[in-house]
Design brief:
mainly alpha; two-stranded antiparallel ribbon; 3 helices; 2 strands; elongated
Amino acid sequence: MSASSTSGAAYWKANIRLVTIHLIVWALVSYGFGIILRPVLSGIPIGGTDLGFWFAQQGSMFVFIAQIFIYAAQMNKLDRLHDVHED
């Protein structure tokens, strides 16, 4: 196995790990906090409503948008680490 294929495999493995983590966070926030744990979070007030409703209606969207920027930054860092960046 050559050095470039080993580096490519490491890059791909790190990329898949990042995607997996972000999917777990997305599922936890949208399904976990918004649906499954909603009764538990209903007693916590935030912005005039309860936390479970907030996650179900807009919190999961805010978290998803934040994840996009965080993932982009993490991928830029990963690209530089494996010397596959574009700039």
